[in-house]
Structure formats: C-alpha cells, structure tokens
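Hello forum,

I keep getting stuck at the same step: I have a sequence, I want structure tokens, and every attempt I make locally crashes halfway through. Rather than fight my setup again tonight, could one of you with a working pipeline run this one for me? It's a single chain of 193 residues.
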Amino acid sequence: MEDLLDIWHKFPVIGALRTSLWKDINGEELSLCPVFFFLEGNIFTLREALKILPSDLHLFLHLDLFGGITSDESGLLFIRETFPQIRGIISTRARTLNLAKKAGFLTIFRLFLIDSESLRTGLRIAQEISPDALEILPGIIFSQVRDFIPVEGLPPLICGGFIRKEKEVEEIISQGAVAVSTSCRKLWKMNRR
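Reply #2:
Ran it on my machine without issues. Output:
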C-alpha cells in the first residue's frame, strides 16, 4: 500500500472507468492516471478492457457492480487467477472486502453519505474491517462534512462522485483526502502538473 500512497501523492486523480468509456479511451488518456477504478461491467467487458490497458496500471475492480463474478471466496480467487492485473477490490460490503483481503487484494471501502447516521455507521464499519482506503461518495460534499470525519484515525481517504472542476479537486485534496476518483477525463490531466 505504501507505493500506492506515494502514487496518489504525486498523481491524486484516479480515473474511473465505466463500460461506456472503455472503447473510446485513447492511449494518451490512459497514460494520465496510474490508478484506475473499474466501476461497472461484466467478465467479458473486463477481459476486453484489460487487453487495451497498459499492464503497469494499478487497477481496482468495484466487485458489487460486475456481472459474472461472485463476491465469495471462489469468485475472488477466480479474479486473482484470471485477471492478475486487478490489484484491488472496491466494495460497499464488509464481507466482500474481508474475503478480498484474504485473497491478497488491496481493499477500498465505498461509503455513501446519505445522512449523519450513514456516516457514523460507515466509519464504524471502516474501523472494523480496516480497508486499505476509504472512498467517500458523493465526494463533492466532502468539504461540507469534513469536520465530522476523523481523517487522522482512518485509512487514506478518496472522494468520488459529482466532481467536475479542478477547483473542487484541489479543495478536496487540501482538506485531507489523498485522491479523487472521477470519470471526468479533463480532470485526469491534473496529474500532469
């Protein structure tokens, strides 16, 4: 995880890929982000995407949103053997992340902030499962809820969702997040600075 933290400090924008984006992304765009999140698809679209992505990328799979792969122990071992480029698993489920850790993946716990109770519950779960990183969604509200999040006592924070402007990325990073995940490709260029 240390090398990933170093990467995020240098390149704080994570590319978020959806099935609709995979086919029209070019090599220059792929070179902008050393870390990508696969947010949806199935085993067939994943296989096709991995054919075009450079092998040195750090790739995370949002397992909750993928078809054809179960989030049980066998499914995770299948991913490990079939798609060795996948370095980590993203999930909203504690059980999935615990199994992913056992299978040797890095883990990112996705926490949707609906209200203060979802924040309290999510932070409690994050402390119990100790993921490698915690992703807050929607990331655009991070500055409004930052005072309620004990950043110092948590895994590295990532923010994702509705982030469309450079100023928003800069503000989120300045308030303690290590990275921002976004499908907004113009923001991927911020990694070039």
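Residues 62 and 90 are 4 Å apart (CA to CA). If your local run keeps crashing, start a new thread with the error log.
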